[in-house]
Write a structure and sequence with these properties.
alpha+beta, two-stranded parallel ribbon, 7 helices, 43% helix, 17% strand
Length: 166
């Protein structure tokens, strides 16, 4: 449980579980409030909606895997040797990986993910500001603060040690 505002290192699951003293406002919930409705924000809140269910899909997994491989040294990514998720064995392996907090990805997608990562790394290397942040910053730091009585949180991809670039 986050007791006071500040910057800390948390794994993604702990951050997304909303570890604040009360339900907090994240960028995703703020976006729901701004572009959709308060009901959408409530529905998408793990803390406010007692019936909240995590959305799982192969599309989300690929994006999450790219993110983890670029910013978290591949944390949690597990490549599984199946053609698809339709067989009983594939589903069981996928579900077991998720129960362990891992991201199951079909091994056939690994070359595509590695190509995306190479392009992302090239783009970072070609941009002086991004390169500086990645060279002298920390990835996936969790930031917590209060705005009046409301807890807020953010998890920027990279936070420069100078705090001048997010």
């Amino acid at each position: 449980m986050i007791e006071k505002p500040g910057i800390c290192e948390l794994d993604a699951a702990s951050y997304h579980a909303d570890p604040c003293q009360s339900a907090s406002l994240s960028a995703g919930l703020a976006n729901d409030l701004d572009k959709r409705s308060p009901l959408h924000a409530w529905t998408n809140s793990r803390r406010l909606n007692p019936n909240y269910e995590e959305q799982e899909s192969a599309t989300f997994d690929l994006g999450s895997a790219c993110h983890a491989m670029l910013l978290e040294a591949g944390a949690g990514v597990m490549f599984l040797e199946f053609d698809d998720w339709r067989t009983k064995d594939a589903k069981a392996a996928r579900d077991h990986a998720r129960e362990q907090g891992r991201m199951p990805i079909l091994a056939k997608h690994e070359p595509k993910l590695r190509a995306i990562l190479a392009k992302a790394r090239d783009a970072i290397g070609a941009n002086a500001f991004l390169r500086a942040a990645f060279e002298d910053g920390k990835n996936e730091q969790s930031i917590f603060w209060t705005q009046g009585p409301t807890w807020c949180r953010a998890r920027p991809d990279v936070l420069a040690n100078s705090r001048k670039l997010i």
